[in-house]
């Protein structure tokens, strides 16, 4: 049975969301950039700091790699700002009696001002929210934001994967162009080497010349490098088609491709092959930069 491909994700993503919670609104923002591992950073307002661990657990369950910053805070709800403000008459009466009792003992004490009475907890109603209910609302909001955050990373991952596959196709074309050039390049090199050997050693017999040419030809043969380049490109295509967390595997394959391209350049006895090897190295470097952003 063929394994179902999963979406490739970039480590770059962003999402934001809001959710009402009583007279307040929860604001949550997620953003991430590339990192070798999962690095979670939290920026929470004081009243929400107790939620860091449950939020961290939910994030770690959905995100594999990346430097992720989570910002969460409470802000006044637009709906709450428009509600009718009516003071609690019973509580205001109690405050008035307490004010009179205190000033009876301390005649020089200043009376309560209207602003102080209105700021007293509960005078304008209980705007608080139960911590358990607040946690449930925050986790629900995080789930929604995480969905959009994951979708943004997948969209960027799809673009990166398409770019990588485009580079793979170009590299396949370059590798295919090398093989037809090799026989003529070797023949020309053997001719030049034969001429130099005969000029250097006049008494060198033909058998010795053939032996020397055979040694050099084996040393500059690039068939193995071309085969390995093709194999590595096949593996890059397979990894991208499979999807999932591909960043580390592709990074390793970029190193292997670069190694073979370097060897191809060092063995080249043709300016055309050398130019192709340099083009391969340029494409590999471009791919390496893209791979660094994949989860």
At a glance:
The chain is an alpha+beta fold.
Chain-wise SSE layout:
Elements: E1 13-21, E2 24-33, E3 38-44, H1 52-62, E4 66-76, H2 78-81, H3 89-105, H4 114-119, H5 131-200, H6 206-220, H7 223-242, H8 247-267, H9 271-291
Parallel strand pairs: 3-4
Antiparallel strand pairs: 1-2, 2-4
Helix pairs in contact: 1-5, 5-6, 5-7, 5-9, 7-8, 8-9
Tell me about this structure.
With 295 residues, the chain is of the alpha+beta class. It has 3 domains: 13-80 and 134-155, Ribosomal Protein S5, domain 2 (2-Layer Sandwich), CATH 3.30.230; 87-119, no CATH class; 157-291, no CATH class. Helices cover 63% and strands 13% of the residues. It has 9 helices and 4 strands. The chain has helices at 52-62, 78-81, 89-105, 114-119, 131-200, 206-220, 223-242, 247-267, 271-291, and strands at 13-21, 24-33, 38-44, 66-76. Strands 1-2-4-3 form a 4-stranded mixed beta sheet. α1 (52-62) links the parallel β3 and β4 (66-76). α7 (223-242) runs antiparallel to α8. The chain is rod-shaped and about 130 Å long.
Beta content: 5-15%
The N- to C-terminal Cα distance equals 26 Å
Assembly of the depicted chains: single chain
By DSSP (H or I, 4+ residues per run), the number of helices equals: 9
Query: Helix-strand pattern, N to C?
Result: EEEHEHHHHHHHH
Poorly predicted regions are: none
Spatial order of the strands forming the largest sheet: 1-2-4-3
Let me know the average pLDDT: 85
Helical content, roughly? 55-70%
What integer value in Å does the Rg equal?
35 Å
Number of strands: 4
Overall 3D shape: rod-shaped
What's the domain count? 3
Q: How is the biggest beta sheet arranged?
A: 4 strands, mixed
Structural class: alpha+beta
């Amino acid at each position: 049975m063929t394994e179902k491909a999963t979406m490739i994700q970039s480590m770059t993503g962003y999402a934001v969301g809001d959710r009402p919670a009583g007279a307040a609104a929860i604001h949550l923002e997620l953003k991430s950039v590339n990192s070798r591992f999962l690095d979670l950073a939290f920026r929470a307002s004081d009243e929400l700091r107790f939620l860091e661990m449950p939020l961290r657990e939910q994030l770690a369950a959905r995100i594999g790699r990346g430097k992720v910053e989570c910002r969460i805070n409470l802000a006044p709800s637009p709906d709450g700002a428009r509600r009718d403000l009516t003071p609690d008459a019973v509580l205001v009466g109690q405050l008035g009696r307490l004010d009179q009792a205190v000033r009876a003992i301390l005649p020089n004490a200043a009376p309560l001002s209207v602003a102080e009475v209105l700021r007293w907890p509960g005078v304008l109603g209980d705007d608080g929210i139960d911590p358990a209910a607040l946690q449930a609302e925050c986790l629900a909001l995080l789930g929604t934001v995480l969905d959009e955050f994951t979708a943004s990373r997948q969209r960027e991952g799809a673009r990166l994967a398409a770019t990588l596959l485009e580079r793979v196709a170009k590299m396949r074309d370059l590798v295919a162009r090398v093989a037809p050039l090799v026989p003529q390049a070797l023949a020309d090199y053997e001719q030049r080497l034969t001429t130099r050997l005969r000029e250097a050693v006049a008494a060198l017999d033909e058998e010795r010349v053939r032996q020397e040419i055979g040694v050099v030809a084996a040393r500059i043969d690039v068939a193995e490098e071309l085969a390995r380049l093709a194999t590595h490109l096949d593996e890059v295509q397979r990894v991208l088609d499979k999807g999932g967390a591909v960043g580390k595997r592709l990074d390793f394959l970029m190193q292997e491709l670069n190694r073979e391209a370097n060897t191809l350049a060092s063995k080249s006895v043709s300016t055309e092959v050398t130019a192709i090897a340099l083009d391969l190295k340029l494409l590999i470097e471009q791919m390496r930069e893209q791979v660094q952003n994949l989860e």
